[in-house]
Each structure stands twice: as structure tokens, then as C-alpha cells.
Specification:
This protein has 13 helices and 20 strands. It is of the alpha+beta class. The protein has two domains: about 5-210, Alpha-beta prism (UDP-n-acetylglucosamine1-carboxyvinyl-transferase, Chain); about 215-405, Alpha-beta prism (UDP-n-acetylglucosamine1-carboxyvinyl-transferase, Chain), CATH 3.65.10.10. The chain has a four-stranded mixed sheet with strand order 2-3-1-11, covered by helices on one side. It is globular and about 60 Å long. The two termini are about 25 Å apart. Bound molecules: uridine-diphosphate-2(N-acetylglucosaminyl) butyric acid.
Length: about 425
């Protein structure tokens, strides 16, 4: 059973900062990123209550404009709090954002968008300071359809004066989910063709309640866990429409699917064919699906190619898989798809994988959340036990992962 996604729940919590009354988020996952975000919201004066799968954000008391420095580098959420804090207090300070080290991950689009909306913004060594007595609607063209920058614009423009037209916006399901929540809070948001979002600022937003849709990254990861062990995992709770490209990719490799309105399974008892896949913005094959896929490639019958086009440094976990016996070569060239924006750089962002490797147990360090899950998948097919370090990454992004792995039959011990 997968719950709502890490990449939606935390943004909904930030959106709740804009409401005049409390908001409720149902089907919330128990992930480390929620703990971090709840603590940040509390640090500026909001009340966050968590009960079972429900998060309530409220509190009409005085709001502080500064997120404490102690939250530096813990996740990507502080920058999204700038707009809501500006609306609430006219000023804001947030520490530098962190998250996974999978590329430079600059925040230039966020800063440019906030400036265009009328804020004075300065980026310092410790964090970002912003001031604005009023925010005004404007026209913003994103150089790349960034998920975070699109969300930052939504979270700021909904209460700005007048109309904002955002071009080249991200349309990932988690972005749409956030926009729907804001609409429920009273925001005026319109999705137009060609990646354009039009937001008419309103004077106030109310609290709202929503149930998050299932996490498409977790769902895919567990489907692959079944395929890679020649077993079958029945994944409940993620709608099929969030997985269209993933299902088609695995089906082309030979996986057979059974899909109902409640659950889906994938099996490949006769083995899998190799594939050439490039990651992309929605509705392409998402960047966070590529890590389980790469491990699956090591078990397919032939040579596969992966081209990562969203983050320039996402293949940092490949040495861990190589240590476990994965036959993987990485390249700075664009392989397995059209040339991407990293073509003229020396970013190592393509991989060629020889299938049919016998993976072996090893002592490896997992560098980020998605690579972390892939390390577990590789350890599950390896013929000796493995020691995996850095498992806190997994807990930051997956709902009760060790319970789930154990229920799937994986033998693991946590030290
Ligand atoms: N970018 C810029 N400047 C900016 C913002 C983005 O150059 O100001 C670039 C990035 O460096 C990257 C590209 O634009 O090359 C796309 O980044 P985007 O902003 O879309 O990513 P994000 O918002 O930082 C979210 C998810 C990621 C997910 C990506 C893409 C969260 C907290 N993170 O990141 O999830 O991979 O969108 O879908 O929502 C994960 O969950 O493990 C994860 C990394």
C-alpha cells in the first residue's frame, strides 16, 4: 500500500500556511521530510498536528518571518516558504536548501520569479532574504519546466495583486495536485495549453482538506522489486494514470501487468528484454524512476541504455552498484535518446548496462533517497548479504520502508 508522496505532502503543508483557517492533509506518508517540514512550520509559528495518516496545519498566532539556520540543507522546502512568509509578514528569511546531491540544483529560477513578482530578494552565504509590502502578478518564463520553481510561483502568485502568467511551467502530477489544493483553498488557477498556468490573485485563502494520491515513485519502485526477484508485488494505492509511461516501459521489456482500480501487479517469470530509456519532464519517464530501472537492467537479457536528462549528476550511485557486481559504464555523452541540455557539458549522465550480471553482496554507502532504494533492490538479488550505509536517506522519502521490505520477504537487520 503506498501513501501520498513525499514530493506532494510537504508542498501541501507549505500551501496550508496561506489559509486563514486550518487545513487537513489525508493519506500523508510517514517520511522524514514531513518531520523536517513540520518542524520548520512550527519554528515560524504554525501548529502542526499529526494523527495516523492525517496532518493538520493551523494556528492563527503571530508568524515569525525567519526559518532558523538549523534547517540549513535538510530538504528543498525552505525556498518554497518565501512566498507564503512574504504574504503573512512582508519579509522572510530562509536558510539554504539541501536535498539530494544529484546536481548543482541552483535556485536561480525561484529568485528571478520572486523578483518579478515584486519582492526584493538577496541571496547570501547563509540563506535568502526577501521583502515585499505587496506582491504583484506578472509574466514569468521559466528557462526549464522546474517543478520547484513552478510550485514557488503558484504559492506566491495566488495571493498577489492581479494576474500572473507562468510559461514553460512543470505539469508533473504533484504540481497539479498542489494547484488543485490551492483551488480548494479559494485560489484562481487555470492550466492552459503549452505549459502555461494563469493565476489571478485573490484577496484571501481559506483552509481546505484533501486526500493525497498515491506516490508514483514508491509504486514503481515496489513493482520493480517484484520483477527483479522474479516474484510479484501487488501495489495498492497509486492510480494507473500516474504510471502510464512507467507501465509501458516495463511492458516493452516483457513485464505482464494486471491492473485494477485498487492495485496492480507486474510479473516477468520468463525474464526481461533490455531497453533504451531517457528520463524527461512529465509525461516522460520520470527521473526518480530511473534508479530502480537501472538495477533491473542489470538483470535483463542484453545491453540497456539510460539517458538522464533532468539532473546532471544523478548517476553518483553507480559505483555502489558496480561494487555489487553490476556491469555498468557511464558516459558524458547523450546516449539512448535525443541530445539534452547537458550535451555540451562534461556531466556524466548516460549509462550502458550489461544485463545478466550475478550481483554480489557488498558494503556500500547510499548517496541519496532514490539511490538508497536501488541499493536495497541490488542487495535483494545479490547472492550474499550486503551492508548498506546511509539508510536515513531512504527513510526521508519512503513510507515505513523497512516494514515494507520485511513484509515482502527481505531479511534485514538495522544496526
Ligand atoms: N533548476 C535550475 N534552477 C532552478 C530550479 C531548477 O536550474 O532555480 C534545474 C535543476 O537543477 C534541474 C532541473 O531544473 O536540473 C529540474 O529541477 P526541478 O526544479 O524540477 O526539481 P526540484 O523541484 O528540485 C523535484 C523533486 C525531485 C524530482 C524533481 C523532478 C521535490 C522535493 N523534489 O525537485 O525529487 O526529481 O522535482 O521531477 O519535489 C526525489 O524525490 O528524490 C527528488 C529528487
Amino acid at each position: 500500500m503506498v501513501r501520498g508522496s513525499k514530493n506532494a505532502v510537504t508542498k501541501h503543508m507549505v500551501a496550508a500556511m496561506l489559509g486563514s483557517g486550518p487545513s487537513k492533509i489525508h493519506n500523508a506518508p510517514e517520511v522524514g521530510d514531513v518531520d523536517i517540514t513540520a518542524a520548520m512550520l512550527e519554528s515560524v509559528g504554525f501548529e502542526v498536528r499529526r494523527e495516523r495518516d492525517e496532518i493538520t496545519v493551523g494556528g492563527a498566532g503571530a508568524i515569525q518571518p525567519s526559518v532558523p539556520q538549523a534547517f540549513t540543507g535538510l530538504n528543498r522546502i525552505p525556498i518554497l516558504m518565501l512566498g507564503p512568509l512574504l504574504h503573512r509578514t512582508g519579509e522572510a528569511f530562509v536558510p539554504l536548501v539541501g536535498g539530494d546531491a544529484i546536481g548543482r540544483r541552483p535556485v536561480d529560477f525561484h529568485v528571478a520569479a520572486l523578483k518579478a513578482l515584486g519582492a526584493e530578494v538577496s541571496v547570501g552565504a547563509d540563506g535568502i532574504t526577501a521583502r515585499a509590502s505587496r506582491l504583484r502578478g506578472t509574466r514569468i518564463d521559466l528557462p526549464y519546466p522546474s517543478v520547484g520553481a513552478t510550485e514557488a510561483v503558484l504559492l506566491t502568485a495566488v495571493l498577489a495583486d492581479g494576474k500572473t502568467v507562468l510559461r514553460n511551467a512543470a505539469t508533473e502530477p504533484e504540481v497539479v495536485e498542489l494547484a488543485l489544493f490551492l483551488q480548494r483553498m479559494g485560489a484562481n488557477i487555470e492550466f492552459s495549453p503549452d505549459r502555461r498556468i494563469v493565476i489571478e490573485g485573490v484577496r484571501a485563502l481559506r483552509g481546505a482538506s484533501t486526500r493525497l494520491a498515491g506516490d508514483r515513485i514508491e509504486a514503481f519502485s515496489y513493482l520493480v522489486a517484484g520483477l527483479i526477484t522474479r516474484g510479484e508485488v501487488r501495489v495498492h494505492g497509486c492510480p494507473q494514470d500516474r504510471l502510464v509511461t512507467a507501465i509501458t516501459t516495463l511492458a516493452k521489456m516483457g513485464a505482464r501487468f494486471e491492473i485494477t482500480d485498487e492495485w496492480m501487479t507486474a510479473t516477468a517469470t520468463d525474464g526481461l528484454r533490455p531497453a533504451a530509456v531517457h528520463t524527461d519532464t512529465h509525461p516522460g519517464f520520470m527521473t526518480d524512476w530511473h534508479q530502480p530501472l537501472l538495477v533491473l537492467f542489470t538483470q535483463a537479457d542484453g545491453m540497456s541504455v539510460l539517458h538522464e536528462t533532468v539532473f546532471e549528476n544523478r548517476l553518483v550511485y553507480v559505483p555502489a552498484l558496480q561494487q555489487m557486481g553490476g556491469e555498468i559504464e557511464v558516459f558524458a555523452a547523450c546516449l539512448g535518446g535525443p541530445a539534452c541540455r547537458f550535451h555540451d557539458t562534461d556531466a556524466v549522465h548516460s549509462a550502458v548496462v550489461r544485463g545478466g550480471s550475478k550481483l554480489r553482496g557488498a558494503d556500500v554507502t547510499l548517496p541519496d533517497v532514490r539511490a538508497g532504494f536501488s541499493g536495497v533492490l541490488a542487495a535483494a538479488v545479490a547472492d550474499q548479504p550486503s551492508v548498506l550505509r546511509g539508510i536515513a536517506h531512504i527513510e526521508r522519502g519512503y513510507h515505513r520502508p523497512f516494514e515494507q521490505f520485511t513484509s515482502l520477504g527481505l531479511s534485514l537487520r538495522r544496526n
